[in-house]
Design a protein that fits this description.
The chain is mainly α. The chain has four helices and no strands. It is elongated and about 70 Å long. The chain starts with 15 loop residues before the first helix and ends in a 7-residue tail after the last helix. Residues 62, 77, 81, 117, 121-122 line the site of one fe (ii) ion (FE2).
């Protein structure tokens, strides 16, 4: 069993958001494997750097998407993203300063945060999109001029 299992209840859009999340899940597993196998600082540092970079890129893409569909909870969602990125960066700095014990904490933080955030908060985008679709289907077409 993988350290971080992808599960069906994490599906959001069956598209780009899920692909991003699946990539992050894979990267968290790679980081966990590297740290638990006692791989060198360089290997862990590279995986960590990729993971932080891809997490930040995903977050920005997700926010852009939310903005494009008029998601009403964007500001609150963004706050959650920002404080997570701050925490991630501060742990990454500690790792760069030589604290090797930070790496396992980082994979745990990423796993726990992603797992909860996707299920509780990202999932709300899917709920919103479904509601938007239903409302659009109910709205009668405008009469042509
Ligand atoms: Fe996300
Ligand atoms: Fe999110």
């Amino acid at each position: 069993m993988a350290y971080f299992e992808w599960a069906d209840d994490m599906v959001i859009d069956q598209g780009p958001i899920d692909q991003d999340h699946q990539t992050l899940v894979r990267q968290v597993n790679d980081l966990h494997t590297a740290t638990s196998e006692g791989r060198g600082h360089e290997v862990v540092a590279r995986l960590l750097e990729e993971l932080v970079r891809d997490t930040v890129e995903h977050i920005r893409r997700e926010e852009k998407f939310m903005e494009s569909v008029g998601y009403p909870q964007l500001a609150r969602h963004k706050e959650g993203h920002d404080s997570f990125v701050d925490e991630l960066r501060s742990l990454q700095d500690q790792f760069a300063a030589g604290s090797i014990t930070v790496a396992p904490r980082l994979s745990m933080l990423l796993r726990d945060w992603l797992s909860l955030h996707i299920r509780r908060y990202d999932k709300d985008i899917a709920v919103f999109l479904r509601k938007q679709k239903r409302e659009a289907a109910r709205t009668p077409p405008r009469p042509r001029a």
